[in-house]
Design a protein that fits this description.
It contains 19 helices and 23 strands. With about 550 residues, it is an alpha/beta fold. The protein has a nine-stranded mixed sheet, sandwiched between helices. The protein has a seven-stranded parallel sheet with strand order 5-2-6-1-7-10-11, with helices on both faces. A three-stranded mixed sheet has the order 16-17-20, covered by helices on one side. The longest helix is centred in the N-terminal third of the chain and has 20 residues. It is an enzyme of class 6 (ligase).
Length: about 550
Amino acid sequence: MTTKYIFFTGGVVSSVGKGVTAAAMGRLLKERGFSVAVQKLDPYINVDPGTMSPYQHGEVYVLDDGAETDLDLGHYERFIDVRLNKVCNVTTGQVYAEVISKERRGDYLGGTIQVIPHITNEIKRRIGLVGKTTGAEIVLVEVGGTVGDIESLPFLEAIRQLRSDLGRENTFYVHVTWLPWIGATEELKTKPTQHSVRELRSIGISPDMIVARSDHPVDESLREKIALFCDVERRAVVPMVTTSVLYEVPLLLEEAGVAELVLHRLGLEARTRPDWSDWKKLVERVRQPKPKVRIALVGKYVELHDAYMSVREALKHAALALGVEPEIHWVHSAELEKGKGWDQVVQADGILVPGGFGSRGIEGKIRAIHHARTQKVPYLGLCLGMQLMVVEFGRYVFGSDEVNSTEFDRSTPYPVIDLMPEQHGITDMGGTMRLGLYPCRLQPDTRARACYGVDVVEERHRHRFEFNNAFRDIFTQRGMVLSGLSPDGRLVEITEIADHPFMVGTQFHPEFLSRPNRPHPLFLGFMRAAAERAGVLETEKETVTNA
């Protein structure tokens, strides 16, 4: 069949929920038997978010093929349960870099290069690649930013042109907007939405559906008013009241009849009857009161929780499967160095140190890791969290605070973590790390092998530094287990401490492959150990020899 396209734009304010709406709608269509892919168009001039501070743009989400992408792709993959690729995240930087490169080569035969048609044509080309590379029958495309932003205009012009290029029967426009609440009069106002739609229509796009986001119930009179002033059918005005359960959004869209309207407009009929039974049970479990398990997440970007979006969600997925609630304490590692926030670490049932870059807060993380090791507190270290687990263990082995990673101390006499050989001489920062999906062979009779239940796994990486093999023998003699190795045995992918309830570090990022109804095995193992320590889960019979 001809590929169908659904375009999502945002109005009134940013962070209105376009990404979750697109992801939820993708789930609705998948439930009806269609193959689905989602693309994010980001208007910033960075080539990708890989070199951006998490404070600027939240976490960097990594795909199988190594693409460093916007965190919304995490929403897409988690909700729809798909594996996306690099064409699913497009930035202004990528588009202009490609067009300028072609101009320098003379591909345009001396023509004047302009936003229209050259930039818009490149955007359209990249949108078209999604269906070709993924085989998706329906492609959902989210335009980042808000209507009215100067930087979004080329993307909006491109998707406007696509209605003519592809035909009205193959395109559908969804505008996600915000209804502000006026406390003085205790009412929701539709005027900002009207202005937003007018702005959208002024550039030639008339929305087929308006998703009206709000913190308060939206009554029928407001829906009718929006439909009248924005020139859409009343049934195409979909109220979306803020929910305390993120994964309830697909159910709310289902109840609103969104899928039927979209399929009708696109000339499609559902192939299968949607079965939401498991998803409803998932939402019901989230709402049920559960015993809490205190998790200290020790990071350097904790002020912005979106910097650890996938980690947070993976903890929730695992806890949900166990019938417990993760009470996440966001501990700033730099504050630990000043003696602040230590009570949150001491009182934690489990400690997690996520990935990151730079020397700020490193010693605070190492102190938290030392506490986890010596006090037998369940611990999970991700990427940098694994590397610092190795550093902390090295300081114990050698009795010296000079043990370090060469990322933080190039002259350390004990470089237990060192730059990968292929990383030497690289000067560009963007897209030059070990990125994407790599296999890992699990060693028998280890905790990692017990968690996964298989011998070989594939996980997503994003790093430059590795365990220094010169220290393998002495570390294993003193109680560190190298439980996951690359298939050729050259790279250490997983470390754990033998005499410990659960202390595991991964060179990769397992959080990227966790799903709401299929938690990642290592997060599940970590949360189980933390719940057992909290006394809210019965201790399982020991199944591994090194614990």
